[in-house]
Specification:
This protein is 37% helix and 30% strand. The protein has 155 residues and is an alpha+beta fold.
């Protein structure tokens, strides 16, 4: 009887907590750190660095991204307001879904919080998030004055 209870408890833990099994724990920790870095790049307005950490379709390149992000009406908040209530689900070794409460600063309003799922994918050892997720959170508005006129240097 006791053996059956222990077996059921172990099976329940494996089904309910997929992050615990295998290499998922390290993938979850890496992905969480990567998402925090992505939010920091955005807050610092390092658009080159941010763009390198985004997955984007071929028809939506740098010009599309830069033309919208400079009109962002929101930026990630600083410090502990940036990233709260984090829940991580490991899909496979290169895909992690992070559900988090993200603090976003609105000009003249203060910090507002949004609960969002982020699907991070690892490509060439770099965790990336879809570009549309960041642009959606930025809530770009073409009627506002752009943060800065940004010209990309071509090397």
């Amino acid at each position: 009887m006791l053996g059956r209870i222990i077996t059921y408890a172990v099976l329940l833990l494996l089904v309910c907590c997929p992050v615990v099994a295998g290499d998922g724990g390290s993938a979850a920790v890496e992905a969480r750190g990567a998402l925090e870095q992505i939010l920091d790049l955005w807050r610092l307005e390092d658009y080159e660095g941010l763009y390198a950490r985004l997955e984007h379709p071929p028809d939506r390149g740098w010009d599309y991204f830069a033309g919208r992000i400079v009109y962002a009406s929101r930026l990630p908040a600083c410090c502990w307001d940036k990233f709260q209530d984090v829940k991580t689900t490991v899909v496979d070794a290169d895909t992690v879904i992070i559900s988090a409460r993200v603090g976003l600063e609105l000009e003249g309003v203060g910090t507002r919080f949004v609960v969002r799922d982020f699907r991070l994918h690892r490509t060439s050892h770099v965790w990336k998030v879809p570009m549309d997720v960041i642009l959606d959170l930025a809530d770009y508005n073409f009627q506002r004055i752009p943060r800065k006129i940004y010209e990309r240097r071509l090397d």
